[in-house]
Specification:
Elements (H helix, E strand, L loop, with lengths): L8 E12 L2 E8 L11 E2 L2 E3 L8 H13 L5 E10 L8 E9 L13 E5 L10 H16 L15 H12 L5 H11 L2 E9 L7 E6 L18
Parallel strand pairs: 1-6
Antiparallel strand pairs: 1-2, 1-4, 2-3, 2-7, 5-6, 8-9
GO molecular function, one term: hydrolase activity
InterPro entries: NUDIX_hydrolase-like_dom_sf (IPR015797), NUDIX_hydrolase_dom (IPR000086), WH-like_DNA-bd_sf (IPR036388), WH_DNA-bd_sf (IPR036390), WHD_NrtR (IPR054105)
Protein name: NUDIX hydrolase
Amino acid sequence: MSEDFPKPIVTVDVVVLTLKDGVLQLLLAQRAKDAAIAPGVWTLPGGFVHVDGDDSLEDTVRRVFRTKTGGEVAYMEQLCTFGNARRDPRGWSLSVAYLALLPEHKVTGLDEQRTRWATVRPCPDLPFDHRAIVAQALARVRGKAAYSSLPAFLLPDTFTLPQLMAVYEAVLDQQLDQSTFRRKVAEQGMIVKARGAHLHTGAGRPAALYKLSRPALQDFGRVLLGTRDA
């Protein structure tokens, strides 16, 4: 392989979203105080690809996330690639961006000295092109929420129907009609009752708990959810 051409800087950046108190939030990691670029600044968790140790980009994401936050990635998917000669003062660089969803009950093990959560609306000031990456991630989540089970990955393994609708409303940033939502979810066979499981709230009848019918992302093949009955 020819070595005549300079190589670009190759990194990954991860947009990690969770739902806290009904609000969609974004995980930020603080850069090292002695970093050559943007020292001590809060950014998306990210880092260089290690060609001698990372077998895949997904391995890079897991390693970077673990190193920067002390935690583990749950659901993730590749978002897109950002690259040009101006995004990093160190030289021509490209970043493969990933989207990860982390249920609030799994937000454990994170290094509180190096990480913090911030609301995504409005997006905080971020260096490089990280605000553009966040915008792309939100567009992806909102778009896929209308025709897939993606928002459910922000919930515990079992959940009530009101909890499921609330997470869709938070991601879509709009109110949904309850009866239409329940009917469309039922038509797709997206969830099943968790046998014998109920949520006791202390008032009235305990609510039935449900779980996803399949652990993998379910694509409904058409837009189902929104403010209009489509």
